[in-house]
């Protein structure tokens, strides 16, 4: 796409970022999140899996422990201290009632204005590479659960006893790494450095991919911000596809 990107809305206080795996946010949104937390916004993470199928050389139980720890360290690099894991099975996540139920409960609990997720479309870029089933499932479930959370007759068992209440306050859903991006968050040098450090924290995962963490993370993060700048008046940015609720 070559159309100009418009700025992301900034009149919100709390965001909940919901993705499939450890490292998903680092590949798509970390620099923007660093800018938002620096500005005093409250951003929290929810991961559907613990990434246990992500490193071929590690058995799932060991891999889950490694990747959970890397995600906690990675989130801290961009100012996020609240990270939750749902423990759906990595690689075979299904967009069905159980996943929607879990995400709706988190939305009702955290009560965000903004939801952030990763590309749910069939492809990355413009038809260049197929997206993975987990990304498609979780991203699609986020779109669905954003409405479920506000309807007291969907998953009503969550409301028993008054521990949770419906939350219809989600105003936008921002999809990172979408091939249909139409908005962007400008990012400065400090935020980019923090995003590079955030991706670099996934050391075991990156080594498992056969890449050198530091140069790989730096080239990817800065390269994506530079490429997106062409559609944002020459300003480095993180692009998003924005859906209003």
- The CATH class turns out to be Alpha Beta
Structural class of the secondary elements? alpha/beta
Report the uncertain regions: none
User: How much helicity do the residues have?
Assistant: 25-40%
How many helices does DSSP assign? Answer: 8
DSSP, total strands: 10
The rough form would be described as globular
Helix/strand order, N-terminal first: EEHHEHEHEEEHEEHHHE
Average pLDDT, rounded to a whole number, is 96
Domains (count) = 1
CATH topology: Rossmann fold
Short characterization:
The chain is of the alpha/beta class and 245 residues long.
List the helices and strands and how they pair.
Blueprint: E1 6-7, E2 14-19, H1 24-28, H2 30-38, E3 42-47, H3 60-77, E4 83-85, H4 97-110, E5 114-118, E6 123-124, E7 129-130, H5 133-148, E8 172-176, E9 183-186, H6 189-200, H7 203-208, H8 213-229, E10 237-244
Helix pairs in contact: 2-6, 3-6, 4-5, 6-8
Description:
The structure is a single chain. This protein has 245 residues and is an alpha/beta fold. The protein has one domain (6-244): 3-Layer(aba) Sandwich (Rossmann fold). It contains eight helices and ten strands. It has helices at 24-28, 30-38, 60-77, 97-110, 133-148, 189-200, 203-208, 213-229, and strands spanning 6-7, 14-19, 42-47, 83-85, 114-118, 123-124, 129-130, 172-176, 183-186, 237-244. The protein has an eight-stranded mixed sheet with strand order 1-9-10-8-5-2-3-4, sandwiched between helices. A two-stranded antiparallel ribbon has the order 6-7. The longest helix has 18 residues, at 60-77. The two termini are 24 Å apart. The mean pLDDT is 96.
């Amino acid at each position: 796409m070559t159309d100009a990107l418009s700025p992301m809305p900034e009149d919100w206080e709390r965001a909940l970022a919901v993705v499939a795996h450890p490292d998903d946010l680092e590949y798509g949104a970390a620099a923007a999140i660093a800018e938002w937390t620096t500005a005093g916004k409250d951003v929290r993470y929810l991961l559907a899996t613990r990434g246990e199928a992500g490193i071929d050389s590690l058995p799932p139980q060991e891999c889950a422990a490694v990747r959970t720890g890397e995600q906690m360290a990675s989130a801290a690099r961009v100012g996020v201290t609240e990270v939750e894991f749902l423990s759906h099975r990595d690689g075979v996540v299904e967009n069905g009632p159980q996943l929607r139920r879990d995400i709706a409960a988190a939305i009702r609990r955290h009560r965000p204005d903004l939801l952030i997720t990763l590309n749910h479309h069939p492809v990355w870029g413009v038809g260049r590479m197929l997206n993975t089933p987990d990304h498609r499932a979780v991203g699609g479930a986020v779109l669905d659960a954003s409405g479920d959370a506000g309807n007291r007759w969907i998953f009503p068992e969550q409301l028993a006893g008054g521990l949770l209440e419906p939350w219809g306050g989600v105003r936008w859903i921002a999809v990172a790494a979408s091939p249909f991006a139409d908005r962007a968050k400008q990012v400065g040098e400090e935020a980019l450095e923090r995003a590079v450090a955030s991706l670099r924290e996934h050391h075991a995962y990156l080594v498992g991919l056969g890449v050198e963490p530091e140069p790989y993370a730096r080239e990817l993060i800065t390269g994506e911000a530079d490429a997106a700048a062409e559609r944002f008046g020459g300003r480095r940015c993180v692009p998003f596809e924005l859906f209003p609720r």
